[in-house]
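Q: what sequence does this backbone want?
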């Protein structure tokens, strides 16, 4: 299984999971679809669908373009009223904790804690095993068993934000807004400690803040905590996800 990072930031988010048989699952529709076309050599025929976590622009903002390209886009059922003006037969709705299949991918959504209805995903596929994707949440209410890969938001460090607040380079309103809607480093580490990591092969950190994070520090601390290979989902990067340890 190949994971392609199209983008992972407040400017736009999109990931592609591509199997050896060229099936593709799109995760998040926050980028221009031309970027997806380039990553797939302009062949969209293998895409089995696109799943989105919530309705903010950096995750869902380009969904209409994906629908116009013939791709079914899935969003959680609580967004129906908010998206009532979205007129396209390819927009589909799913319910939390009710699994559904897209090609060889088995997907189940679970709620997280953001400022509008938002979910994380547990995605299972024979080549990669079980992957848990989490973004845009201030804390986690669940732990997971038998996870092979975490694709986990670690947006900021409270110590970095407080330093910026003292220096005047960050205002208090934005600080509080971030704290109420994104995952902090120590909270993410506590979450990882609460999980069974015995089958975990890969941790990929994503949605790092440009100003409130430190990529090398985050990798170092998470790797020291878990003893697992840890990476950051930089734009354009690709990862091999296997059910077996490397």
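A:
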């Amino acid at each position: 299984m190949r994971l392609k990072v199209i983008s992972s930031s407040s400017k736009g988010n999109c990931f592609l999971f591509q199997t050896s048989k060229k099936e593709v699952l799109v995760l998040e529709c926050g980028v221009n679809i031309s970027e997806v076309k380039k990553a797939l050599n302009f062949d969209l025929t293998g895409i089995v669908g696109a799943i989105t976590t919530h309705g903010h622009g950096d995750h869902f903002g380009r969904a209409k373009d994906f629908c116009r390209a013939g791709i079914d886009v899935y969003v959680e059922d609580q967004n129906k009223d908010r998206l009532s003006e979205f007129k396209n037969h390819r927009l589909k709705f799913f319910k939390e904790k009710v699994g559904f299949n897209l090609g060889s991918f088995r997907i189940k959504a679970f709620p997280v804690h953001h400022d509008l209805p938002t979910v994380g995903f547990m995605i299972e596929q024979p080549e990669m095993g079980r992957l848990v994707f989490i973004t845009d949440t201030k804390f986690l209410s669940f732990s997971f068993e038998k996870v092979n890969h975490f694709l986990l938001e670690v947006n900021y460090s409270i110590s970095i934000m407080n330093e910026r607040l003292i220096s005047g380079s960050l205002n208090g309103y934005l600080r509080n807004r971030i704290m109420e809607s994104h995952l902090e480093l120590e909270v993410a580490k506590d979450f990882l400690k609460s999980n069974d990591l015995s089958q975990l092969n890969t941790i990929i950190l994503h949605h790092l803040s440009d100003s409130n994070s430190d990529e090398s520090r985050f990798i170092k601390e998470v790797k020291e905590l878990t003893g697992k290979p840890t990476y950051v989902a930089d734009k354009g990067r690709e990862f091999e996800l296997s059910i077996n340890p490397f």
